[in-house]
Design brief:
single chain, alpha+beta, 5-stranded mixed sheet, 3-stranded antiparallel sheet, 25% helix, disordered N terminus
Length: 295
């Protein structure tokens, strides 16, 4: 009986030690959802109005100046309501008491995580346009028969997404990969291909992006393809840059030549200046004290 009383007494003490804690979601919050955070205490006699909710942003997601400048919430309060959750609000939250005499004036850290998945981005790679193609996000491609087509799909997400490709009009055509690879394409390979990114722990969160692949007929010219147009654009940009460099170089060269001619004319004028009798230049050096010869 005494042992039961002692155990009950210890439990009561632990439940009424007046510890602070952050009341909020225990799982990642879906982007766009509302969130309520509030500082609470296990002791009902503690005045939580003297408690401040502080946030430490996740520095890996924000620049240094941002993470350092927003460690304290703009409105000092023990409660925070987020109408739409986004990346800015993710971080570590702590309740801190303004009462310096309190034995336990801060709570354990609660990490608020966000669950998000953004629209996929497509990157196209092919032949000579590989470098420029990797920077493009095409909505359609024109390729010649026999060409190889490689399209990468990537989607920013809180966790590494799962990807799969599907083809319009073919329900059983599914490729579980982030990369669409078509080798030696034929006319039948043309059509709309859709990349779908799915959140691994929240399958209901999906985003997709479509690309239209058009396989040209056999006698189509190379410049009619997307790859050919990329090459032409690259060549045009290179030619324009070359013309600009030559033009600037020519203008700079002419400016230097004009400056040299002007300086040469000044020097010739000074060398051909006549010396008249009775002038200061004609006075002997022994009289004027000048040791420099006459020009």
């Amino acid at each position: 009986m005494k042992a039961v009383v002692v155990i009950f007494f210890i439990v009561v003490i632990q439940c009424n030690d007046g510890r602070l804690y952050v009341q909020g979601p225990t799982e990642p919050v879906l982007e766009g959802d509302g969130v309520d955070l509030e500082c609470m205490s296990t002791d009902p006699d503690v005045d939580v109005s003297q408690v401040e909710l502080r946030r430490t942003p996740h520095g890996s997601k924000w620049p240094g100046w941002c993470s350092a400048g927003y460690r304290r919430l703009q409105s000092v309060s023990n409660r925070l309501t987020i109408s739409r959750m986004n990346m800015y609000w993710s971080g570590d939250y702590t309740c801190v008491s303004n009462n310096a005499t309190a034995t336990d004036n801060s709570s354990e850290t609660m990490t608020l995580k966000i669950r998000y998945l953004w629209e996929p981005r497509l990157r196209w790679h092919e032949r000579f346009g590989r470098f420029m193609g990797s920077m493009m996000e095409p909505s359609s491609l024109k390729v010649q028969q026999g060409d190889d087509v490689v399209v990468d799909c990537s989607s920013p997400s809180s966790e590494t997404p799962e990807y799969y490709w599907s083809k319009g009009g073919l329900e059983d055509w599914i490729v579980k990969s982030s990369t669409l690879t078509l080798t030696s394409v034929k006319a039948a390979d043309g059509g709309k291909y859709m990349c779908t990114a799915m959140h691994p722990t929240y399958p209901a969160l999906k985003m997709s992006r479509t690309i239209d692949i058009n396989v040209l007929h056999e006698d189509a010219s190379w410049y009619q393809t997307t790859n050919g147009r990329v090459v032409l654009i690259g060549a045009g940009m290179a030619a324009a840059l070359l013309v600009l460099i030559l033009t600037m170089g020519t203008l700079l060269f002419r400016r230097v030549q004009r400056a040299k001619l002007a300086q040469r004319a000044i020097n010739d004028h000074l060398q051909k200046k006549p010396i008249f009798k009775g002038s200061a230049e004609s006075v002997p050096a022994s009289i004027s004290g000048d040791t420099q010869p006459l020009v």
